[in-house]
Amino acid sequence: MDNPFSLNNFSRPKLEMPENEKKLLLHSCCAPCAGEIMEAVAASEIQTTVYFYNPNIHPKEEYEIRKDENKRFCDKLGFDFVDADYDKENWFERIKGLENEPERGKRCTQCFDMRFERSALYAHENGFKVYGTTLGISRWKNMEQINDSGNRAALRYEDIHYWDFNWRKKGGSSRMIEISKREEFYQQEYCGCVYSLRDTNKWRQENKKDRIIRGIKFYN
Ligand code: SF4
Fold first, then answer.
1. How is domain 20-206 classified at the architecture level of CATH?
2. If you average pLDDT over residues 163-178, what whole number do you get?
3. Is the pTM value of this prediction over 0.90?
4. What does the alpha-carbon distance between residue 82 and residue 212 come to, in Å, rounded to a whole number?
5. Would strands 80-83 and 130-133 be described as parallel, antiparallel, or unpaired?
6. How far apart are CA 35 and CA 180, in angstroms?
7. In angstroms, what CA-CA distances link 84 with 43, 157, 167?
8. Distance between CA atoms of residues 219 and 6, nearest Å
9. Name one GO biological process term (predicted).
10. How do residues 125-164 score in pLDDT, each as one tens digit?
11. Percent of the chain with pLDDT over 70
12. Ligand 1 midpoint to CA 13 (Å)
């Protein structure tokens, strides 16, 4: 039976943003997570700017690949793209003492807080009333943890709202993969920081799998 939520069959609903806003600042972590969300907001005629602020990504070459892939899709859809700072020194400073936390733990809360605080600030300074993030579409992430950080950052400004839409619902997660394959996005194999690279490789070693070779795997 055909999947009613796959790209060929799914009729995209008209999305409503908080406060009935039509303009969105979308913090994006990478092209694979952003693809489905970008197509959904485009179909709802939400005027969207993609904000790429991810100083957590290590090393720089990996950061550049993820950024370029995201920009490539922005160009294709005609979205504005903001290439924000790669202020990795501040990121390392922020997570000091949390290097050995597990994924979804306290280090990740700080990592989300830092990225969303900057996103909310950019929204506040540039005429956006609503911001959101692509991070929550990934099943590897704790959506409650992400939404808590997103709301916390928005609360710093009276005029900013965080859009906590659940992008995984109604086949969003599977369309995310469909779009990634169709667009042949780069397929990263770890969350992003040097500690997630370390821990993923450790897990692979323990499970007799090959170590990650960065920069070679693309969806196809
Ligand atoms: S595992 Fe991912 S979310 Fe957590 S600190 Fe590292 S890059 Fe950030």
1. 3-Layer(aba) Sandwich (3.40)
2. 96
3. yes
4. 29
5. unpaired
6. 7
7. 26, 20, 24
8. 17
9. tRNA queuosine(34) biosynthetic process
10. 999 999 999 999 998 999 999 999 999 999 999 999 999 9
11. 100
12. 32
Instruction: Find out whether the beta carbon of 146 lies less than 6 Å from any atom of ligand 1.
Output: no
**Res. 104: pLDDT tops 90:** yes
- Residues 62, 69: contact at Cβ < 8 Å? no
Residue of 195, 197, 203, 212 to test ligand 1 pocket, by largest number of atoms within 8 Å of CB: 195
- Which pLDDT score, from 0 to 100, does residue 220 have? 87
DSSP 186: B
According to the model, what pLDDT value does residue 1 have?
A: 61
The residues spanned by each domain of the chain are 20-206
Residue 220: CA count within 13 A, CB half-sphere: 3
Q: Is 108 in the pocket of ligand 1 (CB under 6 A)?
A: yes
Query: For all residues of the chain together, what is the average pLDDT?
Result: 97
At 33, the pLDDT band (50, 70, 90 cuts) reads: very high
Question: Is 153 within 8 Å of 141 (Cβ atoms)?
Answer: no
75-91: b (≥16 Cβ within 10 Å) or e = eeeebebbebebebeeb
- In this structure, how many other beta carbons lie within 10 angstroms of the beta carbon of residue 206? 8
Q: Which residues contact 176 (CB under 8 A, 6 or more apart)?
A: 32, 33, 35, 36, 137, 167
CA 49, CA 26: separation in Å to the nearest integer?
6
What ligand 1 atom has the least distance to the C-alpha of 108?
Answer: 4
